Each structure stands twice: as structure tokens, then as C-alpha cells.
Amino acid sequence: MPAGLLALVVLSLAACGGDSTAPPTATPNRRPTPTSTIPPQELAAGDTLRLDASAYFTDPDGDALTFSVETSNRGVASASLAGATVTVVGVAPGEARVTIRARDPRALQARLDFTVLVPEPVTADHVVLRALYEATGGERWTHDDNWLTGRPLDTWYGVGVDADGRVTDLHLDFNGLEGPLPPELGDLDRLQSLILSRNALAGAVPPELGRLPILVQLDLGDNRFDGEIPPLIGAFGYLDELDLGGNAFEGPIPAALGNLRDMRRLDLSDNDLAGPIPPEFGDLGRLETLLLMRNDLEGPVPAAFGRLAALRILNLSDNAGLSGPLPVELTSMRGLSQLHLGGSALCAPGEPAFQGWLERLYRYRVATCGQDASILLTQAVQSSRFPVPLVAGDSALLRVFLTAPEGASVDFPAVRARFYLEGAETHVVDIPAQSNPVPTEIDEGDLAASANAVIPGRVVQPGLEIVVETDPDGTLDPALGLTRRIPASGRRPVDVRRMPTFNLTVIPFVLASEPDNSIVSYVNNLTPDHELFWDTHTLLPVGAMTVRAHEAVMVATNSQSALLGQTAAIRAAEGSIGHYMGTMTNSDGGGLAFVGGFASFSSHDRADIVAHEFGHNMSLSHAPCSATGPDPWYPGGTGLIGAWGYDFRDGGQLVPPDRPDIMGYCDPHWIGDYHFYNALRFRLRTEPAAAASRTAGGDDRTLLLWGGVSEEGVPYLEPAFVLDAPPSLPRRGGDYRIRGRNASGEELFAVRFDMWRIDHGNGSLGFAFAVPVRRAWSGALASLTLSGPAGSITLDGESDLPTAIVRNPATRQVRAILQDPSAGGLAGAVAEALALDPALEALVSRGIPNPADWDR
Length: 856
Prior knowledge:
The chain is an alpha/beta fold and 856 residues long. It is built from 10 helices and 59 strands.
């Protein structure tokens, strides 16, 4: 039947309702699928692996499959195919990926990948590392990536190698190692750096380590090693860092350590070492840091230490057996920055030359020989062994201590104290006799054990001297042996320091999206006597203080870390020489500050936080009481004030030494002598210099540079601005550098500096300063690059960080810092800020200042 007629019949049947059957629908072809995976394979060079590819694939349609195979690196492993049999042959050490493909008759395919590792040949270094792994519980390590595999040694966690593949570095600190060190470590003859600190390693240090001929760094700190320090360590001819601190080593310090002529850092702290300090240490001419604190060492400081010309830090604290005056030879150590001798019987000669040398140190804790503890003048805190200078103009509590011979019974006599200034008597105080007995020894913890009087602040001035007479009317029998005059002759000088005025500007920040203007009126009502500053006045070396209320500053963030940076930027932009404190009612935190800087951010209703952050500005780190990043040199390591303080409120009361320090996180708080003295010295050293470096007024043109390093260790730069403000350059030198370049890459300027550390900042840093502008930079600055240990970041014409600073050009006061990634959002926020005052102007930068700003 013709095809056309057949079609017609079919159609007719369908139209008449007759039976019809539709042609069958064709089943679509489906691609093959893998049935399982092939695990990673390890083949020695020359070894062969055979696989049946058909065992790893299936075809849902039952089609016959064909196969192919390829390798990612024929130099490591070759791959061939015969039928369905895959043959892989190891060629040379390394790792390759082998891919098997399965295809059906219609070219649909599936693939299966697996890795082939051709292991490195086992060397002597492999044997040593296996011994270390097995001896120290490697299967329980925190990280053991690739250990005991055939992968290259430089892929094993913590292992570094040289060009020959030999082990040069072994860094397994804080990694859960436990047990003894295997002697095989001494066979790593190219090892240069061995860092195994903060583990649970125990036992003796194997003498075989003495076979490491080129070791430069050995750090076994904070483990459980015991026994004596092996003298063989003194044979490490290239060692420049040795850390054995935080273990249980005992016995004497080997004199052989004095042979380590390249040594820069030596830490033997927190052990049970006994005996004298070896005079051979004086031969360590390159030594920069020597830490021997918290041991059982005895005797004097060797005079040979005077030869340590490179020494920067010396800590011998908490060695009760160390005693005697410091040798005068120490004054030859011109580079020394820190000297810590607390918790020992060592003392400094009282001669002016030696005391002057101490005063030039950045930080020290050293008693003076022959100190008389019979007179104390206390403001916030005082120590008879480590006296705290008095702040001029502040009242002080005078305490006079007398002692009676054993068996004597005598009531406290009358006491007369005379104060002198420039040879003239300025004040006399008579303290009546008391009915309580004179004690047989000085007891600072009992006000009844001393004759006491409050000395007004007008008397407390630099150059002050005192003479104390006991029983001035001569009513007591001289045979009792009570001290009649202090000092026995002449007058005793009182250390009084005049502090620079603490000029404070308080910035009320207002969040643009959720404005709370109550902070503005609050700040406007602040005075130096406001309760918000009680802790600051009482616990810190402040003296005279001024408080200036800044006009409200509109911002786009309530992040306290961002607001801290903006506070510092505002200070630089306004050319101020004082301290700036930002505050906000609805910020995301209580307080932050730059350690050693002039900017802080604090809660508006916490006097303790305000003082705590100012303490950071005065260089203080945290006290070790529930606080992060504590001062490693804090006396006693407990975060307690450690000396008797005095609270003048409610008639006055003593503050015990076990009170937590305000620089920790524990309450109730006070301030210790260590922190008060360090803050006082820092202010006297830095604030006059900072004021002298600024020039108020003038028509200065400067480039505002600000930024930092984040908690993640990433450097960042905020957009730069050209301003009318005095320059505020950082101290020269440091780990960081900002370079400005033109479009050709030529350097226009470079500034090297150190950033401020942010307390509570988990390693974050910050900076803000203003660089004087040169005429040649106008329109030429094309890029800014911040570089340092954390890497680098560059701003250029392509940067897109839209930021606006709204300010009053006449007063230089900043009124807003606004950041918004959208042009419309920023424009709206700027318009809102400009509406606050017709005198305001807005500067906008996306990274590099706009060309028009240079000629404004």
C-alpha cells in the first residue's frame, strides 16, 4: 500500500473512533556512571599497579564500554591501557593524578580520578623524624599533616628543608608533643631551627643534641624538661637564640653558655636553677635579651655584665638569693632599655651618677641601697622598697614609723614634721601622741602603727625636703632608744614631679542611622571634677587637668575599633597636642585605646573604663588578672597592686596589696606602684616632646594618613586627605613605611614609623598622622603604599573607598566622618552633615586626594 494511502487510513480510523496504537517512544541514551572510587595509591619508583577499569563503571543501558587513561605528570607516573586493563608505573618521586574515562557507543562518558604518590626515597632525615613522631605521641599531635607519608618532607607539618631536601627547620610548637625527645634528633646535621615550645615534652635534654653543628635557634620553652642544662649546649657555635624557660631545670647555669658568642636572646626563666650567675655571660657581646627571672639564683650581678654593650632587656626578678649592690660597671651599658630586679635583694647605689643612668632607661624596677622606710608619703600608692614619686599639687598622707626594742613598752610619742622648699620652711605639722604602743617592727598594714597626717597639695612641690622630730618636747626616756630625728642630720629630699597638664578633648559621636544626641549634652557638662574622671584623678599620675567638649561628630559606624581610629584621625586633622577621647551611647563596646598613643574610646558612664584606657595611653599593658595580652614583666604575675595604697575618701583608709590593679579585669580595683611609676615616667618623657613637635595655628598644608593592621593581620589604609592643619609626624624609625609615588612610580616621600598597639585588639594596630605637603605633590600623588611585617596595601586612582570629612575650616573642628560604598548614600549623609552649620565644608576622598583639594 502506498505510504500516503496508509496515512490516510490511519487518520480515518482515528477520526471514526477506531482502535489505534501510537508508535513506541524511544528510550533516551544514558551516560555511564562510576560504581566506586579508587583510593589514593602509593607506588615506589619502578613498581606497577594494574586495575580492571570495567570493575569501576557501569552503563545503565547495558551498552558495551570502552576506556581511556591519562596521567597529569608522566615524569611521576606513566599510565597505559590494554583492553580494560589500566597499568600505572611509578617513575620518580612526586604526585600525579590518573584519570580513567569510560565511553558508551554514543560517546557519552564518565570519569574517575585517583592520585598516585611515588614516595621520596627514605633518607636518614626520614628515620629521625619517624623516631620523633613515635617517641612523642605523633598520633595525638594537634597537627601531623603528611607525617610518615611518602610526600616531600617540606610538606610535612612544621618541617622546612633546603635545596637538597635536607631538614633545616623543625617548628612543632604548641602541637601536643609529649614524652622524651629521642636522641636521634642529633642526627639532623643541617638543622638550623628547632622550636618545640609549649608542649608536654619531659625528661632530660638528650646530649646528642650537641651534634647539631649549625643550629641557630633552639626553643624548648614551656615544657617539662628537668635535670641540669647540658653544658654541651655551649658548643653550638652559631646559636643566636636559646629558650629553655618554663621547665624544671635545676642545678647551676653552665658557664659554657658564655661561649655562645653569637647569642642574641637567652631565656632561662621559670626554672629551678641555683647558684651564681656565671661571669662568663659578660662575653656574650651580641646578647640583646637576658631573662633569668623566677629561679633560685644567688649572689651578686657580675661586674662583667658591664661589657654587654648590645643588651637591651635584663630581667633577674624573683630570685630571692640574688643580693648586693649593682656594680658600677653596669652604667657602661648604654643600650639597656629595661632592667627588672623586683623580688630580689639586689639594689642600686644611691650615687647621683648611677641613679641618673637608671632614669635614662625606658623601664626599670630596682630598689635603691640603704633606703630608710621610716617615712612614707603616699598619694594613690606607695612602696618602701620601690618608692613612687609624688605628683605636685596633690595631697599626700604622711606616715612616720617608729620601732621599739623587744620587751620595751612605750606609747607612740608626738611627732613633728617640717617641710622645706629651696631651704625655707613651708609647712609644719604636729601629730599628737597616741595611746597605742610603738611596735617592734614596721607594719605598713596598720594605720595605728604609724603617726599619720594629710599634707596639703600646696606643700607637695618639686624640691621638697622633710625633717621629722619624734617626742619634740623630750618627754620620753632617751634610754628607750627611739629614733629622735629623721634623718639623723640634714633634710631628706622628697621625690616630687610636676606633671604636664592633662589636656583632654572629649568627642561625642552620633550615629547617623540611629542618632542619640543625649551624648552631646552629657559631654558639654563634663568638667575635670566630674565623677567620670574620679578614677583618672585618683589612680593615675594626672595632676592638673582640663576638659574640652568637642562639637558632635556624625559617623556612619558604632564599631568601637573604627571609632578609635577616627578619634586619632580627628586629633591629627585638628592639629591637637592633647589627649582625645571618643564616646557614644550606642557603641558596640566599652573601651579601646592606643597603647602609648593619645587617643582612646570609652563608655560614657564607666569611670573605671575611662581610667583604664588612659592607662593604656600612658604605655601600660594589661595586668595579668583575667585580661588578654598582659604585661610579661608585671611583678608577681598575679595582677595585684603589690603595695599599700591609700583612699582619702570618708576619712581615709588603707588599700591592701592584694587589691587587683585597674589595668586588669578584676574588681575591686586600685593602682599598683609598678603601673603608677611607669605611667608617670612615660608622661614626663613623651608629652613635653609631643607638645614641642606641634606648632599651633599657621597655614600648614598637610596630608592626613591613617590606617592600621586588622586582627587578622591584614594592613589597611583609610583614604588620605589634604588639610589645613599643623604637621604631626611620628617618631622616626620603625617596622612600617608609607611611600607616596607619582604616576611614573617615582617616590615623592617616605615615612618610616611604628604603629600603636590597640589594647584588647588581638594584635591589631593603628596610626594617624599628618605629613607636611610640598608644592611638587600637587596633583602628582598617584599612589600610597603601606608596607611592613604584615604585608602591604596600596591606594591609587582605582581605589573606591568613598569617605567624607566634614569640618569647619575656620576652627579645624571635624564635624563628621562618613563612609558609604554608594555615591548616593554618601552624598545624602554629607548633605545632612553640612546642614548642621553653613560654615562647614566637605572633603571627599576615595583613596588618593582629589586634584582640586591640593589647590583649595
